[in-house]
């Protein structure tokens, strides 16, 4: 057989002893077929008597105490994540593993808290 080069497409060898693991079926050169994958379709909810989680949460937020809690959320939680994501560019962690990600998260929180202290006038 001629040597394989960049211009010549690579072909599988004649697969007599390993025919079950080869991509070409024997001497005929026909490709073997793979089994068809199954696909699942979503046709809607089965239990329509119960409200969805979204509807239940909407009722809780629309209540007066839910409005107060939701309003406090904008002042306490959301700015922290917005600052880390937009200003510090923490869109994803660059390390792998729970210990390393925890260390990276702690470092970002430390930087955020030092920045808060500096803006409050604690920096000398």
Kindly list the characteristics that best describe this protein.
about 120 residues, mainly alpha, about 5% strand
Tell me what you see in this structure.
- The protein is mostly helical.
- Helices cover 44% and strands 3% of the residues.
- The chain contains 4 helices and 2 strands, in the order ββαααα.
- The protein has helices at 53-62, 64-76, 78-87, 98-119; strands spanning 24-25, 30-31.
- A two-stranded antiparallel ribbon has the order 1-2.
- β1 and β2 form a beta hairpin.
- The chain is flat, with a radius of gyration of 30 Å.
Short structural summary:
It is built from four helices and two strands; from the N terminus they run ββαααα. By secondary structure, it is mostly helical.
The rounded distance between the terminal residues' Cα atoms is 78 Å
Low-confidence stretches: none
Specify Rg, calculated over alpha carbons. 30 Å
Helical run tally: 4
Number of strands: 2
Strand content: under 5%
The SSE order reads EEHHHH
The secondary-structure class comes to mainly alpha
Apparent shape: flat
Main beta sheet strand tally, sense and closure: 2 strands, antiparallel
Order of strands side by side in the largest beta sheet? 1-2
- Overall average residue pLDDT: 76
Quaternary status: single chain
Instruction: Indicate the percent of residues in helices.
Output: 40-55%
